Amino acid sequence: VKKITTHTLQKMKSVGEKISMITAYDFSFARIFDEAGIDVILVGDSASNVMAGHETTLPITLDQMIYHASSVIRGINRCFVVVDLPFGTYQANSKEALASAIRIMKETGAHAVKLEGGEEVLESVKRIVAAGIPVMGHLGLTPQSIYKFGTYTVRAREEAEANKLRNDAKLLEEAGCFGVVLEKIPAALAKEVSESLVIPTIGIGAGMHCDGQVLVMHDLLGINTEFKPRFLRQYLNLYEQIVGAVKNYVHDVKAKDFPNDKEQY
Ligand code: KIV
Ligand code: NA
């Protein structure tokens, strides 16, 4: 199999092939997504929400991200795997950021890290890139800053915030990022940024002009049923299907139908 690299992703942008990205947090789903032809798996700090049940991404630790990422790595053979640096492991200074990125690379076998922010984290991005670790940026609605924003609504609708985002995207590219996630910003702004950058943009709620798209697996598969933002296309209703299947199992056990003659030794 031909493994996806940062060069593959850059090439995809240059020939106009859109990049497909999905989150995964464990071995079994990573294997399924790799098999299904996904280009990039993101071990997102959204694990804090969908795996651990926290309200925000803030509580998840570096050790917990490393556990998820190392599980994902054992399931893939073609995908490029990016791991989120969790809140509090890179913001203080670039030395700490590099140390966190190195732990992820050494202890998981992942291919790249992602961190949130622009100018604020530029020194850290440069230092991690200088160590030979590919870095992905993340701008717009950055969930680790949710208490600063106070709301999960669309970002950069105002000109000042849009200008900062344009500038941050350029700075991240210049600092050596191989790509940047644009989360929940107007499609027109995402189009402009995607056209102005050489590196690929990956959108989530950022419209059709991004160079790729990313979704959280639980949202795409309908495991999360409460979360239905406009940007989400839900491809399955796994929640309903699993409830139905498990109800049938409960019924069969209670009815002494399972196991039957053929299902025992
Ligand atoms: O953690 C995550 O799932 C993410 C994506 C939504 C981009 O960062
Ligand atoms: Na994230």
TrEMBL record:
Chief site of localization: cytoplasm
Superkingdom assignment: Bacteria
Co-factor binding comment: Binds 1 Mg(2+) ion per subunit.
Known catalytic reactions: (6R)-5,10-methylene-5,6,7,8-tetrahydrofolate + 3-methyl-2-oxobutanoate + H2O = 2-dehydropantoate + (6S)-5,6,7,8-tetrahydrofolate
Subcellular localization: Cytoplasm
Top-level class of the enzyme under EC nomenclature: transferase
Gene3D superfamilies to which the protein is assigned, alphabetical: Phosphoenolpyruvate-binding domains (3.20.20.60)
Function: Catalyzes the reversible reaction in which hydroxymethyl group from 5,10-methylenetetrahydrofolate is transferred onto alpha-ketoisovalerate to form ketopantoate.
Assembly description: Homodecamer; pentamer of dimers.
Protein name per the record: 3-methyl-2-oxobutanoate hydroxymethyltransferase
Gene for this chain: panB
